[in-house]
Amino acid sequence: MPSLLSLYINNKAGGLIFHRDFSSAAAKLDINEHLTLASTFNGLAMIMRQLSPVPGSSGMELLEADSFVLQSFDTVTGLKFFVTAEPESKHLDAVLKDVYMLYSDYVLKNPFYELDMPIHCERFIQKLMKLADDYNKRG
Amino acid sequence: LRPFGASVAFGKRALLATTCMGVALYTLHIFNRRGTCLFYKEWNRPSPSRGDLTQDHKLMFGFLFSLKQLVSKIAPKKGGFYACNTSAYKLNYFETMSGLRFVLCTELAAGDMREVLKYIYANIFVECLVKNPLWKAEDPITCPLFTQHLQNYLESIS
Q: A47 to each of A50, B43, B92, how far by Cα in Å?
């Protein structure tokens, strides 16, 4: 069953506010590399919109590579959620929407959380790990 | 299946679509390892590049270069990317060992275009250019045989 590799959440400015690895197969990078990677992805997603030969394009939503697949989701408030997973993974857009729901419930409704700051909300992380486990089992 | 060269009048504008396997193609770029755009063909580009086409090519090359670096960092195993999508188009990518980059922008419904790009490289590019004693690796492609074979191939697989 193809599994999730990692999740990244960027704030409106393109800075990384959350990152989690779900599998030991995910690339092992230090925190600075994760930060630059996330911001670079934000920029590249925007450039892809500019390169579009067709009007009305969004930014990059899906990236397919030999050893992984990356799905991205932009919220109406300017946040970017993107997840990497093993190839042949299905329903990643549903996973991202579920993560967004968890974010609204356990991060935004947390009175101690400051908007656009790094996320350290325990309940969010717990629920997220459960979501990832369920996905990896179910596929 | 839409026949090659069919004009579809949409109000005042007529769009010419080239289809390959019933899939609409938008643009094709071929870059060498230095970033020179050796070949560019557009079939259907409803939103033409603002400003200069060369700026557009540079942006495309820069985008691919950075994306390749990002992919190599984030990937669990070796191997590059071969496609990326937005809500409006799909970018199909193929890079050879020598650093030649083939970029084909198609509609979203396109399936796996890897074999198409490999064929274009192995059977059209290599045959018409690499084996051509008059072709120099850094120059833009002007060989009519190449353009003709490319067009024939894309038509023929519909």
A: 5, 22, 16
The encoded tokens of residue B130 equal 């690499």
List the one residue out of A99, A29, A128 whose CA is nearest residue B70: A29
- How many residues are present in chain B? 158
Put simply, the answer to whether B26 touches A57 (Cβ < 8 Å) is: no
Is the sign of the CA dihedral A87, A91, A96, A102 positive or negative?
A: negative
| Cβ proximity of A64 and B82 under 8 Å | yes
The pTM for the full model equals 0.87
Per-residue pLDDT reduced to its tens digit, B57-90: 999 999 999 999 999 999 988 889 999 999 999 9
Gap between the Cα atoms of B34 and A120, Å rounded: 44
- Is the CB of residue B13 less than 8 Å away from at least one CB of chain A? no
